[in-house]
Amino acid sequence: MPNLVKAHISCAALRHNVEVLKAAAGGTSLCAIVKANAYGHGAVLVAEALSGMGLAFWGVATLAEALELRKHGVREPILLLRPLELYEPLGDAEEASDALLEADIRPTIVSAAGIRLLAQRAAHRRTIARVHLKVDTGMGRNGCPADDAVELALLLRASPFLELEGIYSHFACADELAAMAADFARRQQAVFQDVLERIAARGVRIPIRHLANSGAIFNLPEARLDMVRPGLALYGYGGKYIRGSERLRPSLRLEAPVIMTKWIPTGETCGYGRTFTVRRKTRIGLLPLGYADGYDRRWSNIGQVSVGNRLIPVIGRVSMDLTILDLTDAPDAVVGSPVCVISDRRDDPHSVESMAERLETIPHEITCVLGSRVERVLTA
Q1: How far is CA 189 from CA 137, 180, 186, 212, 359, in A?
Q2: What is the four-CA torsion angle of 41, 45, 51, 55, rounded to 10 degrees?
Q3: Which domain holds residue 57?
Q4: What is the predicted pLDDT for the residue at 343?
Q5: What is the CATH number for 223?
Q6: Which DSSP string corresponds to 232-268?
Q7: Sorting pLDDT into bands at 50, 70 and 90, what band is 182?
Q8: Residue tagged active-site, from 240, 262, 272, 281
Q9: Dihedral sign, CA of 369, 21, 48, 307?
Q10: Which of 83-97, 183-197, 324-338, 345-359 is predicted least confidently?
Q11: Are strands 78-80 and 57-60 parallel, antiparallel or unpaired?
Q12: Which has more pLDDT, 240 or 98?
């Protein structure tokens, strides 16, 4: 049986966003970031929607994500953003190396140990691995220290089985317009530029230099370099901190049908913990989704959904599989009526960005948590 909860992913919105990003990037190549199941939108569906749009790369976080794209016919280069070295503590680095070489996945490298391992596995397979070197310019996460980058670039060049195809770093706060955040982003960019110049001075040529994420594409045009890596903006979200993001179109609409209605008398409570007491005779409705599907429990008693253009309040606690609505003022909402849980209209109170603002979080969290029971459907 098909799942009742459906995330409708707009092909038109996704393709529109790519065009906006291409224009904003001034012709620089795009690496579409589709990690975390394309931020919850469905990586395979997004790849299908954007087929033929001239994307240079796809970016993923895990080897499994990369192999899933290959399995479904994605032929463009795929960049594995999680450094190969991070598989070593789990004892999986050799196996991961062989798998990515077999599928022609571009790994990220951050250390001499990673270079030696990958060169060994590439030599064993008699192939050349194209790699990207990641530099930590201030994010303080993964990435090699900036002072080590030149030595690692020389090591990569020296191996007959490795090709240094790209070098990149990642901004910590390029999607914020506050002066302090902008200053730090520029400092990161200066560190990265210094690394590039020192590497070039040693005669190492790197074809693809990439630094700009969604925020930097709009806010820091000087950071575009040879390729940009849009993530959140690809799906139509940017928020008030990214200049020009209002041109993007939200691509996700989450719907679920009413599966039951009934009247409960004044003074009765509903939901776990009896946190909501009805003040009038109330017609409630049940939705077949809850926090297991990614609808946050914090929407208990404060959430809003819609039937047509009418906003409907969420009452009681959101439970694992069910959410209760007050349908008293929506007589047209009956069993089977579609309910919009997440709207694709930016100004709605239950749009991705509005929900993120109310929960004091980021749009990524609203979409990434959509569960496996939610059926993703590509629409025109």
Answers
A1: 8, 14, 5, 9, 32
A2: 30
A3: 11-235
A4: 98
A5: 3.20.20.10
A6: GGGGT---TTSTTGGGS---EEEEEE--EEEEE-TT-
A7: confident
A8: 272
A9: positive
A10: 83-97
A11: parallel
A12: 98
Counting every residue written for the chain, the total comes to 380
Active-site annotation holds for 272: yes
**DSSP notation for 281-297:** -EEEEEES--GGGT--G
Tokens of 378: 């590509």
Structure tokens at 57: 């790369």
Q: Give the model confidence (pLDDT) of 57-104 as tens digits.
A: 999 999 999 999 999 999 999 999 999 988 866 668 888 899 999 999
Structure confidence at residue 245 (pLDDT): 80
The helix or strand, by DSSP H or E, that contains position 31, with its residue range, turns out to be: strand 29-33
**Phi/psi at 223 (nearest 5 deg)?**
-95, 5
Total of domains in the chain: 2
Q: For the chain, what is the total number of helices (H) and then of strands (E)?
A: 11, 20
Q: Give me the catalytic one of 6, 35, 168, 237.
A: 35
Q: How far apart are CA 222 and CA 228, in angstroms?
A: 11
148 and 260: one domain? no
pTM above 0.85, yes or no: yes
Asked about 6 being catalytic, the answer comes back as no
Q: Which of 185, 205, 235 finishes a domain?
A: 235
Q: Do residues 191 and 273 share a domain?
A: no
Average pLDDT of span 175-193: 83
145-163 b/e (C-beta count within 10 Å ≥ 16 → b): ebebbbebbebbbebebbb
